[in-house]
Amino acid sequence: MLMNTRDQYGLIARLLHWLIAALAIGMIVGGSLLSILPSGGFKAVAIAGHKSIGVVIFLLMIGRIAWRLTNPQPRDLGNIPILNYIARLVHIFLYVVLLLQPLVGILMSQAYGYPVSLFGIFKLPPLVWQSPSLGNVLREAHGVTAVLLAAFIIIHVAAALKHHFVDRDGTLMRMLKGS
To answer: Is the dihedral of CA 163, 169, 171, 174 positive or negative?
Structure first.
């Protein structure tokens, strides 16, 4: 089943969830390692790959939001309304940061005067003017959003594990296998 129902997530929602999760976690780890790489050819390739994957995450998130807006959301399985509300807030925050993080990275790179391409296939048009001082502000913002994203991923994973092992309510299984 491709589409969501009131009781389960469809294949597309699950694929987008896990693909974006894997890419985002990889980017957090990879991004933190970029600063310790020595300058040179490998670092330049790693940075170009980091930028390209950031563009992919941004595009996947646009698709994920469109999919979410056009599909029913499975009902909450938790029976504590305030926790269900907090879960919805965490999801909204994750969506915002998963859009903001790559966008800020793209703007930062362009502000420093470096182009952003999608695996060399095409180059994104410049969205900001070249300005090292703007680049510095965006670099700080990119670092802050990375920390926030990592923290909320940890919260999200912890909540999923609580649902699975403590509440035993099937929330995690809906995202793993749809039922």
So the answer is: positive
